[in-house]
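Give me a protein, keeping tokens residue-aligned:
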Amino acid sequence: MKRLKLIVCFLPVSLVLFCRIAGAELQQADVKTLPLSEIALYPERTAPATVVSLNEATVSAQINARVTEVTVRVGDVVEPGAVLARLDCSDYQLARKAAQAGLEALNARILLAERRVKRTSSLLENQSVSQEALDERQADLEVLSADRRGANADLEIARLNETRCDVVSPFHALVLTRESSVGDFATPGHPLVKIMDLDELEVSAQVYAQDARFLNSVEKLYFEQGGQRYRLKLRTVLPSINTLTRNQEVRLLFDGPQALPGAAGKLYWRDVRPHVPANLVVKRGGQLGVFTVIEGRAQFIATPTAQAGRASPVDIPILTPLVVEGHLGLRDADQVQIMGDS
């Protein structure tokens, strides 16, 4: 009877141990993993962008003169040095001729003064004149030489003013408006024609601040407008953030054909950060993230920038294995069995 009683007491203990082992086996989840490098997405990003000209100038008169001709019309494309308007140059032509004549007269007087100095020097050697007479001749020559330098400057000014009678374009440009008409009297600063530079163009884009800091690593940037894409290269990211939009302005240069100034479109680039697909992102403890497996246990990796239903960037090594099947019911530190492992 004692032996039978001992057996009866032993069986319940064995059953308890068996149940515990079975329960542990039931808690082990089967999962499938793939390295991030095989599932990573690199989504295309966009930002509003506009083509801007670095030079938009109102070309003005530099002299006082009447407008005799405006040689361009709105919409014309002109080359550097092309005449935009002509001013009456009669007064400046006369001023140049007068300055030329004055200079010639001074040259003649200087030639005479030099001869007088030479003769006086010879007479001084013979003691026929005093030293004072020679000093006077030399002083006269120096005064005339100074006058000639002034006359030369007057002639240069007259020639410069004469060149300003033809108002020319400083660059390859599009004519935007005619600011003056034939018959107007122009004064220095009087606007004649408004033009826009067609060569010195940039693209200005408004990019989210969290995306702008990665643009230096992007290989291919495009401006798209009207169904056509133009290759760009980054010039600078402005070191300031708009307090209302939280955007940063980015300036880019065309790397090849250029769009027209003023064109509005979008900046396109592919994000350099690896993103995990939206279906792998789960919520645990109020945070969104993904699961990996370390030494047979699930580990939750929070992704602070993740958004539900969207591919999310992750800052983890590209070869990190991520759970792609069996992750929906996982909890942090759960024991897991990777499918295919023996």
